[in-house]
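Model: Ready when you are.
Researcher: Fold this.
Model:
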Amino acid sequence: MSENHLTSRRSFILTVAGAAIGAPFVLNSVFASVPAKKIRHACIGVGGMGGYDLKNFKSHSDVEIVALCDVDENHLKKAGEIVPGARLYTDWRELLKKEGNNIDSVNVTVPDHNHFVIAMGAIALGKNVYCQKPMCHDVAEVRTLTQAAVKKGVVTQLGTQIASSVGDRTAVQWIKEGHIGKVKHVYLCSNRSGIDGYRLEGPRPANAETVPATLDWDKWLGTAPERAFASNIYHPGIWRTWQDFGTGWSGDIGCHIFDAVWKGLDLNAPLTVKAEVQQSWKDSTERREDTWPQGNHITWSFPGNERIEGDVLPLEWFDGEFYPPTEVQALFKNDEKYPEEAAMLIGTEGALLIPHGGTPVLLPESKFGKDKYPKLEDRNHYHQFVEGCLGRTKPESHFAQSGPMTEAILLGTVAIRVPNTLLEWDSAKMKFPMNPEADKYLRRTYRKGWEVKEFG
C-alpha cells in the first residue's frame, strides 16, 4: 500500500472553526489519491444502525473488516460473530491508537454527541470516514470537521443512504434540468406515524439504576454531561429525544429529506431561520431545556440563485403535529395519501414531490405524464464510499457537499431552542449578530477529560 495510506505521525492543527464555509471547497481533495487493492476497515458502533452499517461494508468484496468497537459488550459479541477474527475494542481511542497502521477507513455509528470526537480522531490520522447523520451534534463541530476532512484529503461520506437511490438522484436531475421552472417555495415534512415512543413524556429519571456489567456508561456518555444511567431511556433506548445526546427529529431525518433539494438547488448557508414548536410534557421550563419538542415548524430563508425565483427562497420543515399546508398537500391528487415524509418544491412551471425513499413525481401529472424518468443505475451508498476510498468514484455525500447542508439543518435545532425568534445568520463569522444569546447553542462545552485539542 502507498505511503499515502499510512498513518501520519505529524501533528495536525485544526482549521479555525470560525472560517467561512460559504467558499467552495476543493472537491478533488475528497478522494484517495492512490487506489488500494483492498480497504481495511474498522466499525465504530455496531449495535442498532451500526449492525446494518457493518453488514453493508462486509458485503463489499474489496473490504476487509479488521476491527470492531462498541461500548456495549453484547453488541460487540454479536458483531464479532459476524466477522470472526476481527479485533474487538470497547474504546474507540484505543482502537485508533493500536490500529493506526492497520486500517484505511472507519465508520462512526454512535449517538450524535460523540460523532465529532471520533470522526476527528480518525481524520487526524488520515483515515477515510463514513459518519452517520447528522454529521455532528453542533454547528461548530460540523464546520471544523468539514474543513479538517478537506484539508487532510481523506474520503468521506455522510450516512444519507437515500441520497444514492435512483429516486433522489432522479429528483436532483429534474431540478437541475428545470422541469418545474424556477423554484419559489419548498416544503419538507416528517410526520411518520408510530413513533410516539420517540417523544418521551415525563421528567428525566430521578433514580440511578445499576449500570449493566456489559456497558461502559462513561464511554457511552463521552463528551456529554454526567447523568445517571436509566435502562431503555438512553441505552438501549430513545437517546435522540435528549438534547445532550441527539439533535431531535429534524436533526436526524432532516438530513434525508433535505438532501435532494439541497443538491438540486445548489443551496448554501441560509440568511435566516425561525422555529415554532409544540412544547413537551406540561410545557415546563426544565423539560424544554432537557428534551427536544414534540413538534417543530422551522422556516429558513436561502439566498436566491439561477434555479430560484426571486432573491430569497423560503424553505419550511414540519414534524410532529405540524403539517404542510392543505393546499400544498392537495397538489398531490391521486388515490394515495400525501406521504408522511417528503419534500415538495413549488416552481414557476409546476411542482415536484419527492417521497422519502420513494419515486419522485412531477405535478400536475396531467401535464408531465410519467415518461420523463432518466435511466439511472442502482447504487449502494456504503459501497460507493468504498469505491471512493479505492479512487474509483466520488462519494455522493462527501463532507464538502453534506457539511454545509448539515450546518443549515442544525441551525434549525438552534432556532428550536429560542422559538418564535427570527435569527439572522452570519455564516462567515458563525454568529447571530442580532441575537447573540443564541450563539451559545452553536457549540457545547465537553465534559472534563473529553475535550478536543484546538477545539476547546
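Researcher: Now this one.
Model:
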Amino acid sequence: MAMTSLKSSATVQTNTGSANYGPALAVLTTLFFIWGSLTSLNDVLIPFAQNVFHLAIDASMLIQTAFFSAYFVFSIPSAKIIDWIGYKRAIIVGLSTMVAACLLFYPAARIPSFPFFLTALVILAAGITVLQVAANPYVAVLGKPETASSRLNLTQAFNSLGTAVFPFVGARLILGESVSAAAQTASQDAVIKLYVYFFAVLLVLLAILFAVFKLPKMEAAEHRLGEKVNDSIWKHPNLPYGAIGIFVYVGAEVAIGSDIANYLALPNIGHFSSEIADPAARYHAALAVAARYISLYWLGAMVGRFIGSGVLQKVKTSRVLAFCSAMAALLVTISVLTSGHVAMWSVLSIGLFNSIMFPCIFTSGIAELGPLTGDGSGILNMAIVGGAIIPLAVGRIAVMMNRTYYPSMTQGETSWGQGIHYALIIAAFCYLYILFYAVSGSKPNSERYGAGARA
C-alpha cells in the first residue's frame, strides 16, 4: 500500500515539474464559473417560487433540497463514468446534461409548475455533479501537490465570480417589487431568457470547446474499472472526516445564501421599503431589494479565494482553514444576537471566510489517495448533499418559530417574524466542526501515523 501511494505521488510530481498546464487550467476554470453562476441563481429562485407558487420559506427550500440531493445520488455514478470514459469525455457528458436541464425550464416557467422546476433542477445538478467530480480532482493534480489548495482556490475564485454576478442579474430580471399577475408573467419570461436562451446556448458552446481541446492525461490520479489498487479509501481518515466537513460547509453556506433575501427583508434587519405601511406588502417589496445583496455575500467569497490563492502558497492549509472557520462561526453568532446593520453586514461578511473552505477541505480530503483520487472525489461530492438537508432544516425551524412566537406577523404563506433570524445559529455549529477538521481531522496518513510513530 505504501509503495503504491509513494509511486503515485512521485509520478504526479515528475509530470508536473516539466509540463505547462496553464492553458488546460484556463479552460477548466470556465467550468467553475458556469456552475457557480447556475448554482447561485437558486438563491433568487427561492423568493421567486415563494411568490409565483405561493410557498412558505420551508417549502421553497425544496429548490435547494432537489438541487443538492442530486450530488448524493449522482456523485458515485459520476466517478464510475470517469473511470469508463475519462475526465474529458465525462465533462462533455456533464455539459450536455446541463443543456437538457436548461431547456426544461421552458415548460416549468410557462405552465408554471413547481414539480417541473424541481425536475429541471435535479437534472441540472446531475450535470454539475459530473463536472465537479471530474474537474475538482483534475485541478488538484494539475501541478505540484504542495500548491494544490492554492490552485483549486484560484479556480474556485472564478466560480465565485459567477456566484457574485448572477444573483444580482437574476434579482433584477426575475424578481419584481409587485405581486401582480403582470409582474409574475414578466418574472416567468425572465427565467426562460436566462436558462433557455442564455445558459443553454453557452453550455453548448462549452461542450464544443472541450470536444476540440486536448486536455493532458493525469495517469497517476485515475484508474480503470476492474483494475486492482492495493489501497482503500477507508484507510485514509482524512477522507471521511473531510466528507463530513464538506457536508456541513455546503449546508451552512447554502443555508445562509438561500436565506439572505428573507433575512435582510425583515423589518428590524435591512430596513428596506420602510415607507410602505402594510407589513405584508412591505415585506414583499423588501424581498426584491434584499435579494440584490446576495451578490455581496458571494462577492466576498470571490475576493477571499483570490486572496487565499496567494496566502495558501505560504501558509499551511489547515491553519488558514482553522482561522476562517472560527471567524465564520463568530460572525454567525454576532448576526443572530444583534439586529439592524450589524446583523446585516456580519451575515454578508461570512462569504469572505467561506471562500477557502471548500478547496481546503477537498484537497485535504483527497491527500495521498493516489489512484483512488477519483473515488475519493466521488465520496466528497456526495457530501455536498448537505446543501439539500441543512437549508431545509433551517427553513423548517424558522417556520415553526414564526407560527409559535410570531403568529401576528404571518399572512398566508408569508411571514416577517424572527424565525429565520434565530434559526441561522445552526450554521455556527457547522463551522465549529470545520474548525475541528482543520485542527485534527485533516491530517493525511503520512502526518497522522508518522507523528504517532515518532512519539
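Researcher: Key takeaway?
Model: The two ends are 23 Å apart (CA to CA).
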